[in-house]
Amino acid sequence: MIRIDNIGKTYRTPQGEFHALRDIDLEIARGEIFGIIGRSGAGKSTLLRIVNLLERPTQGRVLIEDQNVTAFEGEALRRLRQRIGFVFQHFNLLNSRTVYDNVRLPLRVAGELSSADQKRRVGEVLELVGLTDQARKYPRQLSGGQRQRVGIARALANRPSVLLCDEATSALDPETTQAILRLLLDINQQLGLTIVLITHGMDVIRAIADQVAILDQGHLVESGKVLDVFLNPRHATTRSLLADIGLESENGLTSASASGARVVRLTYQGETAELPVLSQLARESGVDFSILLGSVGHLKGTRYGQLTLEIKPPDEAGFQRLLASLSGRGVHFEVLR
To answer: Can you say whether residue 183 is alpha, beta or left, with left for phi > 0 and alpha for psi between -120 and 50 degrees?
Structure first.
């Protein structure tokens, strides 16, 4: 659906050139939810704005459905932006307009529907976001979550094929954040809409994203399926972001383990996560285990588990038999010591 090809963005400042993005390559499939995450200043907002050309890249190109949209100007660019909905962090609603008028605004600007069809479309998207009964209210009369729902409805009015979300939940409390994430997931599933969202919180990525890209100081440092990145992070930035939500790394654990013990990290997902693997191994092998670190949970509906164990095998041959037994049960393992 979207291909980001060698994108770079450089700003000229009184202090010299500032490279906000360097050599970014990403592919986003049709119908998936793609998360872009990084600390403040990582370049994620710049990258999102380049997708709909609110920012022009210094180098590279963006292709949407195989069209090089970075070459678009004038009418072609206007039509492109009608195909790309944008949800803002702080809602960006017109306070002097009702909910109905805020949602209708992009339809009036496009000018492609009759007044009756515009009214019908506003009703459809307000029903989709659960605000049919709020149509005549003004933004100041709504809660933060309701205002963001208006923003989402407005972004969907022109039937876009892509929805861009710029920190869409960062101004909301935790409970409202979860409600908005469920709404985005429902929209993705009902409409088959491709969603690209940026965030600084791994909990958002964990809740709804299929794929994730991690940015650090303008560089793409890691990307892939959310499950793979969460369970097997390769870059220090990724591990730091995971630590923010309690998925700590094993740093310091291997050196603290008992003399002669082996340290192994087990990763399992899906049906394997439902099996009593450790208890079965303990009975069969007679080997003692100590759990040094562990986490279990769900990533967009897929159950996972990751355990770091200290194992005291009787000898090397026994240890290898234990690893073979793990492999036979479909459990991925990594020997840390």
So the answer is: alpha
Fill in the amino acid letter for 91: F
**Residue 291: strand pairing partners:** 309
The set of long-range contacts for 256-260, using a CB threshold of 8 Å and a minimum separation of 24, is 257/292, 257/310, 257/337, 258/310, 258/312, 260/312
Angle, in degrees to the nearest 10, between helices 277-285 and 316-328: 140
For the chain, the first-to-last Cα distance in angstroms comes to 43
Instruction: Render pLDDT for 194-249 as a digit per residue (tens, 0 to 9).
Output: 999 999 888 899 889 999 999 999 999 999 999 889 888 889 999 899 888 766 55
- Nearest-angstrom CA–CA distance, 198 and 164: 8
Neighbours of 126 (CB within 10 A): 22
pTM above 0.85, yes or no: no
DSSP string, 234-272: -SHHHHHHHHTTT----TTHHHHSPTT-EEEEEEEEGGG
Order of strands across the sheet that contains 33-37: 84-87, 162-166, 194-199, 33-37, 211-216, 219-225
By residue count, the chain amounts to: 337
Q: DSSP 3-state assignment of 102?
A: helix
pLDDT digits (tens, 9 = 90+) for 101-158: 999 999 999 999 999 999 999 999 999 999 999 999 999 999 999 999 999 999 999 9
Residues near 248 by Cβ (< 8 Å), separated by ≥ 6? 242, 293
Please work out, in degrees rounded to the nearest 5, the angle formed at the alpha carbon of residue 79 by the alpha carbons of 69 and 114.
165
CB count within 10 Å of CB 1 equals 17
Inter-CA distances, 136 with 124, 126, 131, 133, 151, Å: 15, 11, 10, 8, 15
CATH architecture of 253-335: 2-Layer Sandwich (3.30)
The residue ranges of every structural domain in the chain are 2-243, 253-335
| Domain at 2-243, CATH homologous superfamily | P-loop containing nucleotide triphosphate hydrolases (3.40.50.300)
